Amino acid sequence: MKLKIVKIAIVMGILCFSLLSAGCTGVERNPIGFSGVECHDGILYIGSSDGRVVAVNPASRETGQEFPSSDREWSYSPSPMLPSKGFSCGSSATPVSIYGTPVAADGLICVGIYNGKVLMMSPSARDNDSAFPQLKDGEWSYPRTDDVIDPIVGMPVVDGNSVYACCSDGRVYALDRSYGDELWRSEPLDDKLWITPLIKEGTLYISTFDGHIYALSTDSGELLPWSFKAEAGFVSSPALYEDIIYVGSFDRNLYAVRMGDDAPLWKFEAGNWFWSKPLVENGVVYAGCLDNRVYAFNAVTGDKLWEFDAGDPVVSSPIVVDDLLIVASETGNIYFIDKQTGTGERIKNYEEPGNENITTTGFLVRSSLCSYQGTLYVHTQNDMLVAIDIESRRLSWKFSLVSEEDK
């Protein structure tokens, strides 16, 4: 009976994620990505909902210059739609949508795309609007053909001379960092892998919908002897502190699993799933939950230190800025929380003074947050980039990522 309940929970979880991501409402037919923001060398990199990789200069946006300005701003649209093997409930083609946050690596930008591509891009080549890929600048695309490909939902991870990406065909792919050649592909670990892999000391750790944590060799992709099996599937990407892996499950538990152990070190049951990747800092685990709360735990003992009511589900992962834990609720409210005490307040939308019902950003937030030099950057589901001054706790500016032809 318990196994049947677990299987039902997994199926419902996948269905809910599909509906959430693809916008299957009978009107919206294409999946809408929720790429976070990456800041590198003073430039913000975001994946737009229509599948473009966009480079934004905060200084140009603050002064309201026309986009793209001449100061390292650009927008690049990858390859067109490909035949679908994904979870869209509409078209039979896979739109070029982006879910994972772009990753900066030695001056280049790596991104995984819903049409199954992994791209390595040179900001200077994109700024010059050169043909893609510029091999001399370190650019590449994997695969190089327009074969039928399964979607990539999580972020790629760049480590050493390799790039690792989880794919919706249930495999992990290792690519050469310089040229994009396939180094290896793992055996299928599950029906789908929508997570960002975790790497420690030559080992990849993968959490799956069927409740496994697998360990793979980064050199060959072969399964290593240790794995962990829970009663229910895992929904979040894994996080790490020392030798402990933290991951959220469909059974509403946050698990702490010490590498090599068969039983969890501890687990905590909340009122709903821990969907987003937990954050671990200085021996404390911070985890947003779909039960509207944010929790703080002792990373080793699992003792709950505090909980904060955000009023709505928390889909994106929190970030720490100095003494603050910054959290976004799905409805678009932003909270600044004292990470020691768990007390906090909502940042208001100062464009609508006196209207307490207006959310901070004005639209849904499911993407990861980013802070840089005292400013918080949030990418909303209506493709708005929102900048909030952390010290004054006021909205600095908003910038629409919607392309001119779509306006």
Q: What are the defining features of this structure?
A:
407 residues; mainly beta; Lipocalin; Thrombin, subunit H; 4-stranded antiparallel beta sheet; 3 helices; 34 strands; 8% helix; globular
What do you see in this structure?
The chain has three helices and 34 strands. The chain is mainly beta and 407 residues long. The chain folds into three domains: 1-200, Lipocalin (Beta Barrel); 230-309, Beta Barrel (Thrombin, subunit H), CATH 2.40.10; 312-407, Thrombin, subunit H (Beta Barrel). β2 (43-47) and β3 form a beta hairpin. The termini are far apart. The relative contact order is 0.10.
**Roughly how many Å is the radius of gyration?**
20 Å
CATH class of the largest domain: Mainly Beta
The number of helical runs is 3
Beta-strand percentage range: 35-45%
The helix/strand class is mainly beta
How are strands sequenced across the largest beta sheet?
Answer: 1-2-3-4
Alpha-carbon distance between the two ends: 52 Å
CATH topology of the largest domain: Lipocalin
Rough outline:
globular
Overall tally of domains: 3
Low-confidence stretches: 1-12, 23-29, 86-92
Q: Largest sheet, if any?
A: 4 strands, antiparallel
Nearest-integer average pLDDT: 88
Record field, number of beta strands = 34
